[in-house]
Write a structure and sequence with these properties.
Blueprint: H1 4-19, E1 39-40, H2 43-57, E2 65-71, E3 74-81, E4 92-95, H3 109-112, E5 118-121, E6 131-132, H4 139-152, E7 158-163, H5 165-176, E8 181-187, H6 198-208, H7 214-225, H8 237-248, E9 249-250, H9 262-266, E10 272-277, H10 285-292, E11 298-303, H11 310-313, H12 315-328
Parallel strand pairs: 4-5, 4-7, 7-8, 8-10, 10-11
Antiparallel strand pairs: 1-9, 2-3, 3-5, 3-6
Amino acid sequence: MHTGTTRRRWPVVLLAVVAAVSTGGLVLLVAASGPGVGHFRTPEGRQAYEEAYTAAMAGLPGPTATHDVETSFGTVRAYAWTSAEHPDATPVVLLPGRSAAVPMWGENLPDYIGHRTVYAFDTLGDTGMSVQTVPLDGIADSARWVDEAMAELGIERAHLVGHSQGGGLAAAVAVRYPGRLASLTLLEPVLTLGMMPLSTILVSIPASLPFVPESWREAALNRIGGVEPDEVDPDDPLARLITQGSRHFGSGSLPNPVLLTDDELRGLPMPVYVAIASDSSLAGGDAAAEKAELIPDAQVTVWPNTTHSLPMQVATDLDAELERFWAAHP
């Protein structure tokens, strides 16, 4: 049973993928704005974001180690939760959704870290503590930094998990670096198995324009999420984190995921778990679930009574199912 606080929290995360359009223009309508690097617009904005990030991280289990990993495109912030009881278990690597960074996994981490070592990355070029220094020229470059970060951390093989935009990134890694993956988990992966609903794209326009009043922006986001204003707690640490990132970080050059072709889906050699929301899916809904069946070794679940934020909405049940999936594919 989820608490009232959690119920207020997940609608904000549901909206993060759309709220993030304000960081770089209409990313749902046009391609990324071209060569450039993600950056804080002002020193004051960076400080406000870092304060919100620290507060959000305080709600997570304390990591065993914090790493700043050098890649060809910048420094990736990675956290590790080492399992002393299961040192030989294949580790899990987590890639967050747009604008949510590592703190988005707060509902799930307690279930994961008791069984195996877990790594979580802040996305390079997006909000978080990773620092991009070289432009990313498409999703192939994004996949490359993930591969390089795993190599630098000594992760030869892992269960790779991505939510939302992180799901699209995880899929890109699987296509290009299949040998790194013991399995692939896609949680509501956007722009990977299907397109976002046109209605979502159109309603997101007010949320993407910097001159729109804040009340209009919030109303648009609530409509997309199908939530009432009193369901969203603006004082929740994760809500504050996403808000500060949207206000102060420019990530318009962050590459969007791309739809996998039928041949790419059929060519995935690793076991794949796909979770699709039954309601307000931003991954493509039932059509995306059907598309995922092209993967030779796929376990596809449409989770009832969930939205795009299903990782936190059904955390306990989902995490138990994922642990069974990972255990079956060591």
